Each structure stands twice: as structure tokens, then as C-alpha cells.
Amino acid sequence: xxxxxxxxxxxxxxxxxxGDERQSIDHDAALEKVRAVAGxxxxxxxxxxxxxxxxxxxxxxxxAALQKSVADQRAREDAGPEEAARIAxxxxxxxxxxxxx
Length: 101
What we know:
Layout: H1 17-50, H2 56-78, H3 81-99
Helix pairs in contact: 1-2, 1-3, 2-3
């Protein structure tokens, strides 16, 4: 066996331009899902407030969920790859659930 001390390991953190483009598309698609979910919560809040007898507990739940989605949207913009993937997966599933797909 050879000792590789002093030989730098390859840096796999850099991606090819095609990889950068794919990451940009994935990033944009993930942000769209987060924005869509936030929009759904905004609409639900509006509808609940316009109802004859708004449910204060439901309003609180919807507003908390909206705040979380806005915070996650901001976090997604600056997140590392693992955190970004987690947020993307969470909102993909939530989007599907909310839209009944």
C-alpha cells in the first residue's frame, strides 16, 4: 500500500457548467414550490377571514404555516446542498398534499 500523504484529494465540490445549470433549474423549481405553498396559505388565510365566522385556531395554524414557508424560502436561497435538498423535498410533498395531486 502506498501512503498518499501530501497528495491532495480531488475536490468534488466543483461542478461542471452543465451541473451548475441543472442545480440552478432544481433551485428554481424548489423555490417555485415553496412560493406556491406560501401562496396557498395566503389564499386560505384570506378565505378564512372572509368566511362568516372565521375559526381563530385555523387562522393561527395557517399563519404559522405561512410564516414557516416564508422563513424556509429565505433559508432555501442561502442553504447548502443538503439543507436545500431537504427543503425542496419537504415542499414538493407539501405542495402535492395541498394541491390534492
